[in-house]
Amino acid sequence: MREWLDELRLEGLAPQIMVVRDHVPYADLEHAEQEAISAAELEGKRLLNVVFAGNRLLSETE
User: Fold this and answer.
1) Given CB 3.0 to 4.6 Å as the disulfide criterion, which of 2, 44, 55, 58 pairs with 62?
2) In this predicted model, what pLDDT tens digit does every residue of 11-47 receive, in sequence order?
3) Contact partners, residue 1, CB within 8 Å, separation at least 6
4) How far apart are alpha carbons 10 and 47 in whole angstroms?
5) Confidence band, pLDDT 50/70/90 cuts, at residue 61
6) Is the pTM of this model over 0.85?
7) What does the alpha-carbon distance between residue 38 and residue 9 come to, in Å, rounded to a whole number?
8) What DSSP letter does each residue of 2-55 carry, written as one string?
């Protein structure tokens, strides 16, 4: 992710943070995150540091 941030800075750009879902009950957070990631992937968005392993979201270092 550091490389990506550095590349953005060199191009005069900055990452954008966008709320994709709010007011999610704590017990539903993992499921809501997986749904949001799946939807973003279907839209062709480039995601960083995430990999699905079955029903579990893993960081790239796991």
Assistant:
1) 58
2) 999 988 888 889 999 999 889 888 888 888 889 887 7
3) 48, 49
4) 20
5) very low
6) no
7) 28
8) HHHHHHHHHTT-------------GGGHHHHHHHHHHHHHHTT----S-EEETT
